[in-house]
Amino acid sequence: MRSLTQSVLRWPQPEPVLQEVRAWADEQRRLRPSLRRVGLFGSYGRGTASVGSDLDLLLIDEAADGPQHQRLCSWPLERLPLSCDALVLTPAELEQLFGGSSRMAQELKTDLLWLN
Question: pLDDT class for 1, splitting at 50, 70, 90?
Fold first, then answer.
């Protein structure tokens, strides 16, 4: 919100953001039968989101194919309430990731909050 004499910025509280992301995920599941799970990781997954936090989204899609930048193009991420970094994986790719010891795998194992 802005006035002529000062700027006032309000960052949304985490719970309304989570409600909107859940509604977005429910809609995407209705539209895409291949979507198996939607999860949040990072600060929203850990429950530590605050001013400036973005969304880190994990989409498990059986039909995912091609490089990440192509996979992401088909998802309406702009309809989410905050800016979003997303990762689209197949169930097999998620299983393979969880089987490894990469930093990403460790972060997902500790921070992932499944929305469904």
Answer: very low
